[in-house]
Design a protein that fits this description.
about 775 residues, alpha+beta, 6-stranded antiparallel sheet
Length: about 775
C-alpha cells in the first residue's frame, strides 16, 4: 500500500514523500524562502522586442526580465491583424510598454530569465482549464483504452465556454459528468477573478499564485493507490483537512494527523533514501555505483561496476549492473526532478540482446513518472540519450548552492600550484605602467608559502619594477579564492590604500550564508491579488464505478458444477434455466465415408500438382454472359436434405436423376470449398444451383470450381415474367440448411444438375451425400 508522508515540523522546509511500503517513490521539498514561481500568473510590461530572436522581454516583477517567444503570444494581444499570407513579424504586432497577462512556464536558471507564455492554464483536481486557448484540449496521454473513449463522451456534454479548452487529468478517470462539471465551474470562477484583478492596477505585479506544496501534492498525487495520508504538523494538517473536505470529501477518512514521538520519516526508514538524493554517488545492491554530475546544459550519469563481481563472466556482470542501474536512474531522476538532456554511460555490453534488455528495463522504470520522457537507443559507444520534462525546480537548484571553493567543478588546485599562479599574476600587475603598489589578499596557507618559500622571488619583483607588494593573509578566504588589487601612483594617499596591512583584509559576506530569519525578512514574497477562492458548492459524491458494481453484472449461478451436471443428466428444468441462452449453433458436418478418403485425397493431391502446371483456362463468351447475370439464389435449409438419406456415400443425381460427364475444369477439395461469402453452409453450396422456372422449363448448368459456366437449353433471352420477378423481389425466408460432408472427388469432374418442377417439394442441391 502506498502512503503519502508530509513533514512540516521545521519552518525552514516542507517535505512531501510518497512511499510504497518502505521504499521512497517520489519526493518534493519546498523551501519557504525560495518560493516557486512556476505556474504563477503575473501582469507584466513588455520592455524590449527582439526581431532577431522573435521574442519579447517582459518585466513581471522578478530580478531578471522574462523571455516571451512569439509562438507563446495569444492573438488577443496583437495590435494589428497580420496578413494571412505572410509571416508574422513580432515588431508589427507588439510594441514596447504594452501590458500582457503572462504565466511562468519555466523557472529562472542561472543567468537565464524565466520562460513566459500568454496561454494561461489553470490546474484543478480533475481538469486543466485553458481559458484563452480554444485549439488545445482533450484527454491526458496517460489515459488509454476504454477510459479514454468514455472521457471523450463526457467531454462533449460539459458546458465549456467558447474560446476555452480543457484537458482531463489522470485523476478524472472514473469520474462522473457532475464531478467534472463541478471542477470546471470552480476553475471558471478562478479565471474570472484573475481577469478582474488584472484590470485593477498597472503592471508589474503578481495576480495569482500556484498552490503550495501541500495542495499540489494532494491534488496531483492522491489517487486510489494511496491508502493513507500522514501529516506531521498541526498547521499543515488543518490546511490539508480543509482542502480535502472541500474538494475530495470521499478521501477525508484517509487523512491522519501523526503525533508519535518518533519522527515520521524515521518511522518509515526513508531518511537515508532522501540523503541519497543529495549525494553525487549512489550505491547499487550488487556493489555497483551510479555517479550523477550536473553541467549547465545536460546531466551526465556514469555507471560503474565497482565491487559487482557476482556474474559468471564479464558480460553477465555488466548486464546485471546495468539492469540495476536503469531502475535506480529512473528513480533518482524522479526524486531529484532532473530535467533537460540526460546522457547515461552504461557499462559496455557486446550482445545486442543485452542492450535491448537494458533499454526496455529503463522504459518500464520511467512509466510511473508524470513527466514527459523520451528515450533513445544505446550507441556503439555505450551511451544512451534521454530527455525529461522539468516539472519544478530540481532538488539541487532548490537546496544546493555552488561550492565557494571549487565553483562547481568538484576539485581545486593545491597550495603550491595556487601560490605560483598568484606570483605570476602579481608580476604582470607590477609590470604595468604607473603601478605604485600591488595588494594581494590571499588564504593563510598560500600567503605563508609566498612569504617563506618564495620570498626571494617577491623581493626580485619589487626591486626590478620599483613597486611595493603587500601580501595580506585573509582568514575568510580559502583556496583557490584570492583578491589582487593594483594601486596607481595617484591613488596611494586614499584611505583604503594607506591603512595598515592588517586592516586591509575584507570580510567575505555571502548572501547565501545569511541566517534564515534575516534572509526571510529581506526577500519577502509579494502577496497575490487573487487568493482564497473556494468552490461555491461541495464536490459531488463519486458515482459508483461500473467495474466495481457487482449488481450491474449478471449474478453467477449459485449451484455447483456437480449439481448442474446432475441436473443436465436428469433433464431437470432448472438446469436449462441456469444455463445462459446462446444462439443456436450450426451443426457440424458429418464425416465422409472412410472408404473414399484415402484414394480421393491422393487423387486430389495429384490433381493439384497438375493444376499448378496447367495454364489458366479462358472463359467462353457464354461464361462471360453468365457472369453478368444475377447470381442464383441460395438453397433453403431443406435443400441439403434431399440426398441426406442415401444409403451410400455416393453422389446423388438430383431430384429426378441425371447423367454425369467428365470435364477438364479443376475442382478443389470438398473440405476446403466453403465460400466465406455464403457462410458455413457445406461444400455443395459452392456449386451453381439450378433455377426452377415458373413455367416448368428445366435448365441445366455445367459447374466447375473457379470457372462457373452456365449453358442454357436455348440461346434466346428470357422473357419477362411478373410472377417470377415478384418471387425474386420477395423471396421466402430460407431456413438454415444442415451441413453435410461429402467425400473428396477426383479432379477434373463436374456435374449437370436438373432442377425440379414448381409443384415438387423444395429442390435439392446439385450435389449432396
Amino acid at each position: 500500500m502506498k502512503r503519502m508522508l508530509i513533514n512540516a515540523t521545521q519552518e525552514e522546509e516542507l517535505r512531501v514523500a510518497l512511499v510504497d511500503g518502505q521504499k521512497l517513490v517520489d519526493l518534493d521539498i519546498e523551501i519557504p524562502s525560495r518560493q516557486q514561481k512556476k505556474s504563477n500568473i503575473y501582469k507584466g510590461r513588455i520592455t524590449r522586442v527582439e526581431p532577431s530572436l522573435e521574442a519579447a522581454f517582459v518585466d513581471f516583477g522578478a530580478e531578471r526580465h522574462g523571455f516571451l517567444p512569439l509562438k507563446e503570444i495569444s492573438r488577443r494581444y496583437f495590435k494589428s491583424e497580420p496578413d494571412a499570407n505572410s509571416k508574422v513579424q513580432i515588431k508589427e504586432v507588439l510594441r514596447e510598454g504594452q501590458q500582457v497577462l503572462v504565466q511562468v512556464d519555466k523557472e529562472e536558471r542561472g543567468t537565464k530569465g524565466a520562460a513566459l507564455t500568454t496561454f494561461i492554464s489553470l490546474a484543478g483536481r480533475f481538469l486543466v482549464l485553458m481559458p484563452n486557448n480554444p485549439r488545445a484540449g482533450g484527454v491526458s496521454r496517460r489515459i488509454e483504452g476504454d477510459d479514454r473513449a468514455e472521457l471523450r463522451d463526457i467531454l462533449r456534454d460539459l458546458q465549456v465556454p467558447e474560446g476555452s479548452g480543457i484537458i482531463v487529468r489522470t485523476a478524472g478517470v472514473g469520474r462522473s459528468r457532475d464531478e467534472l462539471q463541478w471542477d470546471l465551474d470552480y476553475l471558471l470562477n478562478v479565471w474570472k477573478a484573475i481577469e478582474t484583478a488584472a484590470d485593477a492596477k498597472p503592471a508589474p505585479f503578481l495576480v495569482y499564485q500556484e498552490s503550495n506544496a501541500i495542495i499540489r501534492a494532494l491534488r496531483d498525487n492522491l489517487s486510489n493507490e494511496v491508502g493513507e495520508i500522514l501529516i506531521e504538523g498541526q498547521e499543515i494538517y488543518e490546511q490539508a483537512h480543509d482542502f480535502i473536505s472541500r474538494v475530495m470529501p470521499q478521501s477525508a477518512q484517509r487523512l491522519k494527523h501523526y503525533q508519535d514521538d518518533i519522527p515520521l520519516f524515521t518511522r518509515f526508514q526513508i531518511e537515508s533514501q532522501i540523503e541519497s538524493a543529495f549525494a553525487r554517488e549512489v550505491r547499487l545492491p550488487s556493489g555497483g555505483s551510479v555517479v550523477i554530475d550536473h553541467t549547465e546544459a545536460l546531466v551526465s550519469i556514469d555507471i560503474n561496476s565497482a565491487r559487482a563481481t557476482k556474474g559468471q563472466d564479464i558480460e553477465e556482470t555488466a548486464l546485471n549492473t546495468n539492469l540495476e542501474a536503469a531502475t535506480e536512474v529512473a528513480r533518482q531522476l524522479r526524486l531529484r526532478d532532473i530535467g533537460g538532456l540526460v546522457v547515461i554511460d552504461f557499462i559496455d555490453m557486446n550482445a545486442n540482446r543485452n542492450q535491448r534488455e537494458v533499454e526496455n528495463r529503463l522504459r518500464d522504470a520511467v512509466q510511473p513518472d508524470r513527466a514527459r520522457i523520451q528515450i533513445g537507443r544505446i550507441s556503439r559507444f555505450g551511451l544512451l540519450e534521454m530527455s525529461r520534462q522539468r516539472l519544478r525546480p530540481s532538488l539541487g537548484e532548490s537546496t544546493n548552492i555552488v561550492c565557494p571553493r571549487c565553483g562547481g567543478q568538484g576539485s581545486i588546485r593545491d597550495v603550491e600550484s595556487m601560490a605560483l599562479a598568484i606570483l605570476r599574476i602579481i608580476g604582470e600587475e607590477a609590470r604595468k605602467e604607473g603601478t605604485a603598489r600591488v595588494i594581494a589578499q590571499l588564504p593563510v596557507d598560500v600567503s605563508t608559502y609566498l612569504l617563506n618559500e618564495k620570498r626571494e622571488w617577491v623581493n626580485t619583483i619589487e626591486q626590478r619594477h620599483d613597486v611595493s607588494i603587500v601580501l595580506v593573509p585573509n582568514p575568510d578566504l580559502e583556496t583557490p579564492n584570492h583578491r589582487i588589487r593594483r594601486v596607481r601612483e595617484d591613488e596611494t594617499e586614499l584611505p583604503e590604500n594607506a591603512a595598515a596591512s592588517y586592516r586591509i583584509a575584507e570580510r567575505d559576506d555571502n548572501e547565501d550564508d545569511l541566517p534564515y530569519a534575516k534572509r526571510k525578512d529581506e526577500a519577502a514574497a509579494p502577496a497575490p491579488a487573487v487568493k482564497g477562492i473556494v468552490p461555491a458548492a461541495p464536490a459531488p459524491k463519486q458515482a459508483a464505478s461500473a467495474k466495481k458494481d457487482g449488481g450491474a453484472k449478471t449474478a453467477p449461478d449459485s449451484k455447483g458444477v456437480i449439481r448442474r451436471f446432475i441436473d443436465w443428466l436428469m433433464g431437470s428444468p432448472g438446469a436449462a434455466a441456469s444455463k445462459p441462452q446462446k444462439k443456436p449453433a450450426k451443426r457440424k458436418a458429418r464425416p465422409a465415408p472412410k472408404t473414399a478418403n484415402r484414394s480421393d485425397s491422393r487423387s486430389d493431391g495429384r490433381s493439384k500438382a497438375r493444376r499448378s502446371k496447367r495454364p489458366p483456362r479462358k472463359k467462353s463468351a457464354a461464361g462471360k454472359a453468365a457472369k453478368s447475370k444475377p447470381a442464383a439464389t441460395k438453397p433453403d435449409k431443406q435443400e441439403a436434405d434431399s440426398g441426406a438419406g442415401s444409403p451410400k456415400g455416393g453422389r446423388s443425381r438430383g431430384r429426378r436423376g441425371g447423367r454425369r460427364r467428365r470435364s477438364s475444369g479443376p475442382r478443389k477439395r470438398n473440405d476446403q470449398t466453403a465460400n466465406p461469402q455464403q457462410g458455413n453452409r457445406g461444400p455443395q453450396d459452392n456449386q451453381t444451383q439450378a433455377r426452377a422456372e415458373p413455367d416448368g422449363n428445366r435448365k441445366s448448368a455445367t459447374v466447375s470450381d473457379g470457372n462457373s459456366e452456365r449453358h442454357g437449353n436455348s440461346p434466346e433471352p428470357r422473357t419477362a415474367n411478373p410472377a417470377r420477378d415478384e418471387a425474386k423481389s420477395n423471396p421466402p425466408a430460407p431456413a438454415a440448411p444442415p451441413i453435410v460432408e461429402r467425400p473428396a472427388a477426383s479432379s477434373g469432374e463436374s456435374y449437370t444438375v436438373w432442377s425440379s418442377t414448381p409443384g415438387d417439394s423444395p429442390r435439392g442441391p446439385g450435389r449432396d451425400d
